[in-house]
Write a structure and sequence with these properties.
mainly beta; 4-stranded mixed β-sheet; 3 helices; calcium ion binding; EGF-like domain; FN3_dom; disulfide bond
Length: about 300
């Protein structure tokens, strides 16, 4: 009995070994050639394309993405991909958008959906199959593709206030749609009869969204607007705002606690501070020194 069981186990092992070494039924087809992928309409669609080959009647498609720790992939097939005499193609669409591959092009009767983000890396691979069985498929190598960055929407809430006689402070809010990573903000400014100038501002890592624009003319009105830019595209223009620089440095009331201010060219001086205050801007409480205390008859 033991000998019979051993024979059965050996026979089963032989069958499994033979099955594992059976040839793939590829009917002479090879892996897809010249596989390419392109983003269409921003992040609405990805279109995969590859060379047509006779005998490859079906295709398998895999599209993936990277999360923080893992790589995930969705796939379909073997399926019938639309082909002409030279090319085959397949459509992937962003599942968050109100669209479909069939609406984009009626040749795409089936498709895949994943989340597509600007400047994100996706993976893709295509297999050529001779039948609708997976063991008839030959895969091309998996590749990475970076979806191009888009044009950001308009910078919001652009506000300017006079900071001195020759500078203004500008604040803003980031665009609603960054469509990629914003690498710079551009502040444009001009007078009514002057040339347009600009200042490049890198994004602040603390998201303060604030900059001092200096080197301006005294008591002059400037029109201010901004754009945000990704690595390849400039965004929409923001709404314009206007600001007028101060006539002199005393106009901003730098002397605190009712101190009296005197303009001195490009600067100012607080002439008199209240008896209980001191400092350049009359901002600190007065602290008598030891000599003053002795003179006043105060001893320790």
């Amino acid at each position: 009995m033991m000998a019979e069981n051993a024979f059965v186990r050996l026979a089963s092992l032989a069958v499994i070994t033979v099955f594992l070494h059976l040839p793939r039924f590829t009917s002479g087809i090879h892996s897809p050639q010249n596989v390419k992928i392109d983003a269409i309409n921003g992040t609405d669609f990805l279109i995969l394309s590859w060379d047509y080959q006779a005998g490859a009647n079906y295709s398998k498609i895999g599209v993936g993405w990277y999360s923080k720790y893992t790589h995930s992939e969705v796939g379909v097939g073997p399926t019938l991909a639309p082909c002409n005499s030279t090319k085959c193609s397949y459509c992937v669409y962003d599942r968050r958008h109100h669209t479909s591959c069939h609406t984009f092009n009626p040749i795409y009767t089936n498709s895949l959906s994943i989340r597509l983000d600007y400047a994100a890396i996706v993976t893709y691979r295509v297999a050529a199959c001779s039948t609708n069985e997976s063991n008839s498929c030959v895969y091309a190598m998996r590749r990475d593709y970076t979806i191009p960055p888009g044009a950001p929407s308009a910078v919001r809430n652009v506000h300017a206030r006079p900071f001195s006689s020759k500078s203004v402070e500008i604040t803003w809010t980031a665009p609603n749609q960054t469509r990629g990573t914003i690498v710079t903000y551009t502040v444009y400014y001009k007078t009514s009869d002057g040339e347009r100038k600009h200042l490049l501002v890198p994004p602040d890592r603390y998201n303060e969204s604030k900059v001092i624009l200096s080197g301006l003319k005294t008591k002059t009105t400037y029109t201010i607007w901004m754009i945000a830019s990704t690595g390849k595209k400039n965004g929409e223009e923001s709404e314009k705002t206007s600001v007028t620089t101060y006539e002199n440095e005393c106009e901003s009331s730098p002397c605190q606690n009712n101190g009296k201010c005197k303009a001195t060219g490009d600067s100012y001086e607080c002439l008199t501070c209240p008896a209980t205050m001191e400092g350049k801007n009359c901002e600190s409480k007065y602290s008598p020194n030891i000599i003053e205390l002795v003179t006043a008859g105060v001893y320790f």
